[in-house]
Amino acid sequence: MAKTMIRQGGRSARIQQAVHDAVRQLLTEVERSSITVPMLAERAGIPPSTIYRRWGDLSEVLADVAAERMRPQADPVDLGNARLDLEAWAEQYAEEMSSAVGRELLKDLFLPKGENIYAVRCCELVRGQLEAIAARSAARGERVFCVDEVIDRVVAPLVYHLLFGDRPVTGDYGHELVATVTTLPERRT
């Protein structure tokens, strides 16, 4: 039986939260491939038509949940030097995304067809983290690195290897990639 939602300002947010919670619960109980929209709707206490209307299909729901789970919980660590900050960021990103959960999140992001707003949202989150590191670097008087160069030389190879699983993606590999960024100041500890 579907739970009646109150039609007021926070209704949309409550539905999204209920569906996200239901996805996370179901992923701990059943295989991903066993999850269906009716199963998800029942768990969230809403009619399946709400899911189809808001998300379109299950892959869109999974991508939305993945994008939300990938939202950073804190600012990037500040180690006092842009190179060290980027190495720490790349190491953490590589470790989190190379876990089984991280790989599933990445796959979920790329399942939806057409305009994938969830992948775009994650790109914006990564760019925001890198821009925060660049802004700190500038505030310290360091030569500011090019965020696009870091995306091309660090983030893109990490994501590629995570998605295709053709090599181990480790924190050390993240450090190696950061070393290829030409606009970084010298490494100091």
Summarize the structure.
The chain has helices at 11-29, 37-44, 48-55, 58-69, 82-98, 100-109, 117-139, 147-164, 171-178. With 189 residues, it is mainly alpha-helical.
Report on this model:
With 189 residues, the chain is mostly helical. The protein folds into 2 domains: 11-56, Orthogonal Bundle (Arc Repressor Mutant, subunit A), CATH 1.10.10; 71-178, Tetracycline Repressor, domain 2. 65% of the residues lie in helices and 0% in strands. α4 (58-69) packs across α6. The termini are far apart.
Strand content: under 5%
Q: What order do the SSEs take from the amino end to the carboxyl end, as H and E? A: HHHHHHHHH
Distance between the first and last residues' Cα: 60 Å
Would you tell me the structural class of the helices and strands?
A: mainly alpha
Count of folded domains:
2
Low-confidence stretches: 1-9
Please give the radius of gyration in angstroms: 19 Å
The H-level CATH homologous superfamily of the largest domain, spelled out, is Tetracycline Repressor, domain 2
CATH class of the largest domain, anyone? Mainly Alpha
For the secondary structure, the number of strands is: 0
Mean of residue pLDDT values: 87
- The CATH topology label of the largest domain is Tetracycline Repressor, domain 2
What percent of residues adopt helix (DSSP H or I)? 55-70%
**Overall CATH architecture of the largest domain:** Orthogonal Bundle
Major sheet details: none
